[in-house]
Structure formats: C-alpha cells, structure tokens
Design a protein that fits this description.
alpha/beta, Rossmann fold, four-stranded parallel sheet, 8 strands, 42% helix
C-alpha cells in the first residue's frame, strides 16, 4: 500500500494528487491521510510505503511521521521528500508559463525575449528550506536561462531581500515561483509577497502530473530497496 502523508488537511489538493496517482497507477493501492492522523491510518499487519507530500525534507514533518510510525507499531517504510528533482523544475516552469511569466517552449522560442528578467523560487520553512530547494532553483534557472534565487515566504532570507539582490543585479521584471504543493502555507501568502515587490507569480505545484509521477517514483524506489 502507498500511504500519502500530507502535512495539511487530507482534502483539496492532496485528494487531487491521490486521484491522479490512482488513475495513472491503478495497480497501486493508495491511501491518503494527514500526518496528524497517520498513526491511526496505517494498515495493521500489512506492509506500507509512506510518501510525504513535501517538496523538501522538512525535519519537523518527517519527525512527526517517524513518531506516528513508531506509535502505530507498523513496519512501514518512509521515503524522502519529492524534491529536489528535474520534474519539479519542469512543473515550476509550466506553472510560470501558464501565467505568461515564462516561455512555454524554451528551445523553439529561444530567441524570443523572456517575459521576466529573473525568478524568485519561494518556499516556507525558513533558511533550511531555502537551502534545501536551491538545487531545484538551479535546475529551473537552466530551463529558463534566467537567474533564479530561492527565498522564504515566512522568514529570512525573505522575498524582499531576494528582490533587492536581483534589482541590484539589473533585473527589473520579477516573478515568484512557489516551490510548494499548496498546503504548506496560509492562503494568499504568495499573492501578498508578489504584491509587496510588484512581481508576477505562478500558482503552487498542486496536483500537477509531475507531482503524481514523483510520488509513484518514490514508492517504486522504496520497493526496489
């Protein structure tokens, strides 16, 4: 069994991701639960693989998952977070393109000017999260052929500091790409950050097919080991 553990409510975007995984991989039995309810949701007497719905290895959430597994007496295995990974960079690129903030085809339209000069990859979880998503920021910069810096939405180093650095380097038109599934931060936090620096912003990753594929890959990698 694949158990999707979400740090937020087991509804909304988490349900959408679970639904995509079930459709794409009908041979996998998928159960969705919040981290809070994980201990009561693990199947007794059955093997399970827990995949955290996280874009980085948040130690607080992973510790809660570990405690839940221990409390349940289960032998369930826990995978790492979904990122960093090139598929996350691809999904972030697509989310930017959906808002007109990036070229949809980076090869065919290589000579067309970009809609923005630089991108701020936003996350939550403080400095540790900023460092953790940096590898994905490098992958996104390679796709966009633009500067991409990571910054925190809920602490320092924050969005304002990142914008100042990019402006000082000559970037005028900025965009924010949330490296989040969507349940990690309060509603409206991305919009507020974008308005504070007069920048455009993409939607969170949500139930993008790349997220569902990373879930399935994490599950498969755990079975292989």
């Amino acid at each position: 069994m694949l158990v999707l553990a979400t740090p937020g409510a087991a509804a909304g975007v988490a349900e959408e991701i679970a639904a995509v995984v079930r459709v794409d991989h009908p041979q996998i039995e998928v159960r969705l639960t919040s981290v809070t309810d994980l201990a009561d949701s693990l199947p007794s007497g059955r093997d399970a693989v827990i995949v955290p719905l996280l874009t980085w290895d948040d130690p607080v959430v992973l510790a809660e998952i570990g405690k839940a597994v221990a409390a349940s007496g289960s032998s369930a295995a826990v995978t790492e977070a979904l990122g960093p990974h090139p598929l996350l960079a691809e999904a972030l690129h697509i989310r930017l393109a959906e808002r007109g903030l990036a070229r949809a085809d980076r090869v065919r339209l290589l000579n067309v000017s970009s809609p923005v000069d630089a991108v701020i990859m936003a996350t939550v979880g403080g400095e540790r999260a900023v460092h953790a998503v940096q590898a994905t920021a490098v992958l996104l910069a390679s796709r966009l052929t633009l500067p991409v810096v990571s910054a925190s939405l809920d602490s320092e180093p924050g969005i304002a500091m990142a914008a100042q650095r990019l402006h000082a380097a000559g970037a005028e038109r900025l965009a924010i790409a949330p490296c989040m599934i969507g349940h990690e931060a309060p509603a409206g936090i991305v919009e507020q950050a974008a308005a504070s620096i007069n920048a455009g912003h993409a939607e969170p990753l949500g139930a993008h097919s790349a997220v569902a594929e990373l879930v399935a890959r994490a599950y498969g990698s755990q079975l292989a080991t």
